[in-house]
Amino acid sequence: IPVEPEEKWERDVDLAWRSRQGPKIAGQSAAADVAKVLNAPNLKSTKYPTLDKLLDASHYLDFRWRREGNAIIRI
Q1: How far apart are CA 7 and CA 25, in angstroms?
Q2: Cα dihedral angle (21, 2, 75, 66), rounded to 10 degrees?
Q3: For the whole model, what pTM was predicted?
Q4: So where are the chain's domains?
Q5: Residue 29 CB burial class (10 angstroms; 0-12, 13-18, ≥19)
Q6: Which of 21, 28, 33, 67 has the most CB atoms at less than 10 Å from its CB?
Q7: Higher pLDDT, 1 or 25
Q8: What is the 3-state secondary structure (H, E, C) of the chain?
């Protein structure tokens, strides 16, 4: 069963991460993409101050991505 995004930012983050080369994204780069999508200076200044909290808050992203060390991996 496909999981649909609940909010536009979820799809925008997914698109930003998918536009990067390869299935693995450095945590710092992934966080910068999220901050840009959410129009914030950095990830810590959003309501999702860590990538783990972001993935926990979004079933859409959690279905497509996972944390591995300091990286985000496409599933």
Answers
A1: 22
A2: 100
A3: 0.91
A4: 8-74
A5: middle
A6: 33
A7: 25
A8: CCCCCCCHHHHHHHHHHHCCCCCEEEHHHHHHHHHHHCCCCCHHHCCCCCHHHHHHHCHHHHHHEEEECCEEEEC
CA atoms within 13 Å, Cβ hemisphere of 21: 0
Length of the chain: 75
| Cβ–Cβ < 8 Å for 13, 5 | no
Q: Tell me: the pLDDT tens digits for 37-64?
A: 999 999 999 999 999 999 999 999 999 9
Amino acid at the residue 34: V
